[in-house]
Specification:
Elements lengths: L5 H23 L30 H6 L1 E3 L10 E5 L6 H5 L3 H7 L4 E4 L9 H19 L3 E6 L1 H12 L7 E7 L7 H6 L6 H4 L6 H6 L10 E6 L24 E6 H4 L7 H6 L2 H12 L27 H18 L18
Parallel strand pairs: 2-3, 2-4, 4-5, 5-6, 6-7
Antiparallel strand pairs: 1-3
């Protein structure tokens, strides 16, 4: 299918697909939270201290994927690493919001471009994140604050799970609408086939099971998981038993819905990761304080705002339409797979 036909094709089908996923998500909210569909015994996955593998991606590609502001070397505060969502890249995800917001705060930051706009095997994308965290930590001499949207909140957790040397290099993991346990809406979207990274973001996929095996968080890292009840792509997310929220392990955790702070908030998936002022306020709170975000510190005046800092109100409408067109085109045009990529050998316990 040609890319110039993509947006119109998805536009005709997206509403029905999302509705199907939302209906399924409602059914999934059993009293115990996310229904377990684990096919892989947890014992077969690598212990949490098993050393990470060597990279399969060439060093030059890893280096080219990382871009940083000039003040990262010898930074006076922890550097923020921004990780984009599926179908996007650092510019489409952050250029009109988080980049200028951090510039205004004189906050050093980097971004990593995941291969093929985050549509390919997340296990490969994780290598880019591992490299980025190591490089930023070595260059700045400080820990790294990871801020990710959607897949960008999930993929660094896979990196932390299977490259344990990273854990001492990371202070915060802040996730905006992350598919931490997969999504039922993605199940519906992938029924006829979808990109490999989307297959891996299906609810309780083998990739999700591996990422969450043994424990979901690690000591010394603060986790802030921000989600919206009105997210149409990452479902179920109607409570802190939903897909984005984390539980158990060694880290300190805040799971918070936008509606916990502002009950009338109706941000959808893209809004949560690109312009919503409540999502920004929660993320900024986590980055500027020890530990995870504390929703009580977010002023109620945040609920009256329409856009996060860094968003230009004059250019926003056109850029947001372009962003949606990018997402929709990628969803259809990228080659579809009928199943998720096989888990790499390092994911399993080695003899």
């Amino acid at each position: 299918m040609k890319r110039n036909d993509s947006a119109s094709t998805v536009g005709k089908t997206l509403r029905g697909i999302v509705a199907a996923g939302m209906s399924a998500a409602m059914l999934a909210l059993a009293p115990g939270g996310i229904a377990s569909a684990a096919d892989e015994p947890a014992a077969s996955f690598a212990p949490i201290d098993q050393p990470g593998p060597a990279f399969s991606v060439p060093q030059n590609l890893l280096a080219e994927s990382l871009e940083c502001t000039g003040d990262v070397t010898g930074a006076s505060r922890d550097v923020v690493l921004l990780i984009h969502g599926t179908t996007l890249n650092p510019d489409t995800n952050f250029d009109g919001n988080w980049f200028p917001a951090l510039d205004k705060l004189d906050w050093p930051y980097c971004s990593v471009a995941l291969p093929e706009d985050g549509m390919t095997d997340i296990q490969v994308s994780a290598e880019y994140i591992v490299h980025a965290i190591r490089e930023i930590s070595a260059t700045s001499g400080r820990k790294v604050d990871v801020l990710g949207f959607s897949q960008g909140g999930l993929a660094p957790r896979f990196a932390l799970r299977f490259w344990p040397d990273l854990r001492d290099m990371v202070d915060d993991v802040v996730a905006l609408g992350a598919t931490n346990h997969g999504s039922l809406t993605v199940d519906a979207m992938c029924a006829p086939g979808c990109a490999p990274a989307l297959q891996q973001q299906r609810l309780n996929s083998a990739f999700a099971q591996a990422t969450n095996s043994h424990q979901e968080t690690f000591a010394g890292i603060s986790y802030t998981n921000i989600y919206s009840h009105t997210d149409q792509f990452v479902t179920p997310n109607l409570s802190d038993s939903g897909t984005t929220s984390l539980h158990g392990g060694g880290g300190s955790i805040t799971n918070v819905a936008l509606q916990d702070v502002c009950p009338l908030n109706v941000a959808d998936h893209l809004a949560t990761g690109t312009y919503d002022p409540v999502a920004y306020a929660l993320a900024a709170d986590a980055l500027t304080h020890a530990g995870p975000a504390n929703p009580a510190r977010v002023p109620l005046t945040t609920c009256t705002k329409l856009l996060m800092p860094g968003v230009n109100a004059l250019t926003f409408p056109g850029k947001y339409v372009d962003l949606w067109n990018t997402v929709l085109a990628e969803l259809v045009a990228y080659p579809h797979a009928t199943s998720e990529p096989s888990l790499k050998s390092y994911v399993y316990a080695q003899p």
